Amino acid sequence: MSDYYDLLGVSRDADSDTLKSAYRRLARQYHPDINKDPGAEDRFKEIGRAYEVLSDSQKRARYDQFGEAGLGGAAGMPDMGDMGGFADLFETFFSGFGGPGSAGARSQRRGPQQGDDLRYDLTVDFNQAVFGQEKEIKIPHLETCDGCAGTGAKAGTGPSNCNTCGGAGQVRRATRTPFGSFTQVAECPSCGGTGQMISDPCGSCGGQGVKQIRKKLRINIPAGVDTGTRLRVSGEGNAGLRGGPSGDLYVFLKVKSHPKLRRDGLTIHSEVSVSYLQAILGDTIKIDTVDGPENLDIPAGTQPNSTLILENKGIPKLGNPVARGNQCILINISLPKRFSEEERALLEQLAKAHFQRVPKNYNSGLFSRLLGNN
Predict the structure, then answer these.
(1) C-alpha angle 48-52-58 in degrees, rounded to nearest 5
(2) pLDDT at residue 223 is higher than 70
(3) Per residue in 91-110, pLDDT tens?
(4) CA torsion sign, 53 to 59 to 60 to 65?
(5) Does domain 1-93 have CATH number 1.10.10.10?
């Protein structure tokens, strides 16, 4: 299937009104009751699927981030739980789904409308994600105009019914086609479907009822978040129209990588190099953790690529910061490439002592040479 935005012929930042207008236009063009061309029905279904996804803010966000793989649903027409847009389509063709004079149509268009949800991408440091932090952000969003209290009209005045549609928000047009006569119901071109006109608009917002401002917000980042975590800030999206509630703000987090630590769920992984003498004899060393430098005991006889564990030094569980994972430390053992004569003599002495504790048939040219058994 083509890109949903291309299917509807809109840009990726198209608003809900633009999406609806494009959907209605294309749905009329490809409706199988009118368009008998082969492939029109499939095109009609693709358009319906595209509108279903892009008109839903959460589905649209998943589609923008992951494409169709993020939706998990099969292609097709809008489901029965989203019949609002589908019923609007049939209102375009038939007058039986609540004609332009119906109270339901008027209240839907003239009543309050909820504001759009907003998305904000926020990058945080590794340690901020581990322990949480309060962070200040600035977002541009629409707020209700305080000059007109959201009406769009100048103080002391108010909107009046549209002269074109009489306040219905819709107009009828009778059309004759080869398939018969249709009464087409369309959005009123004069008032944009609101049913009202503002003769004396508010000077502060230009009659829109809302205006864009840049607002400071303090976001509480909980301990244990990771890349892809989504935080919802209720009521901080765009303001609603005609007294409708504001939308929500969704903050999507991206966590920076750490130069020495790597996260895997609640576990932190790191590596440390020790000398062969530290591995053989044991030692206590300082290592980096998210809590700062910590002591790590290297047991005597530690083998290469062993993993040692520091308990409760990992990532806090999201929603329960008391419960933490562990830190796993991979031990790399460094071997010297050169020895002094004194060091070599000591190592050969150690090798002779070691040979006395192994079977005499030990297959080693080194031990044979050291014991003179050539």
Answers:
(1) 160
(2) yes
(3) 444 333 334 344 344 444 45
(4) negative
(5) no
Residue among 155, 147, 327, 132 at smallest CA distance from 226: 132
Closest by Cα among 340, 311, 335, 308 to 323: 311
Helix (H), strand (E), coil (C) string for 134-180:
EEEEEEEEEEECCCCCCCCECCCCCCEECCCCCCCCEEEEEEEECCE
User: Pairing state of beta strands 267-275 and 262-264?
Assistant: antiparallel
Full DSSP string of 20-89: HHHHHHHHHHH-TTT--STTHHHHHHHHHHHHHHHTSHHHHHHHHHHGGGGT-S-SSSPPGGGHHHHHHH
The DSSP element (H or E) to which 90 belongs, if any, is helix 83-93
The C-alpha atoms of residue 285 and residue 301 are separated, in whole angstroms, by 15
> What is d(CA 333, CA 337) in angstroms, rounded to the nearest whole number?
13
Average pLDDT over residues 264-283: 95
Question: What would the two tokens of residue 94 be?
Answer: 């038939």
Quote the CA–CA distance of 12 and 162 in Å, as a whole number: 32
The yes-or-no verdict on residue 217 having pLDDT over 50 is: yes
| Domain positions in the chain | 1-93, 262-334, 341-370
The dihedral over CA atoms of 220, 223, 226, 227, expressed in degrees to the nearest 10, equals: 20
Count of CA atoms in the C-beta half-sphere (13 A) of 47: 26
CATH topology of domain 262-334: HSP40/DNAj peptide-binding domain (2.60.260)
Could you write out the DSSP letters of every residue in 248-284?
Answer: -EEEEEEEPPPSS-EEETTEEEEEEEEEHHHHHH-EE
- The identity of residue 191, as a single letter, is C
66-75 burial code (b ≥16 CB/10 A, e <16):
eeeeebeeee
DSSP state of 113: B
SS3 content of the chain, % helix, strand, coil (to 5): 30, 30, 45
Note the pTM of the prediction, 2 decimals: 0.58
Nearest of 246, 245, 247, 241 to residue 110 by alpha carbon: 241
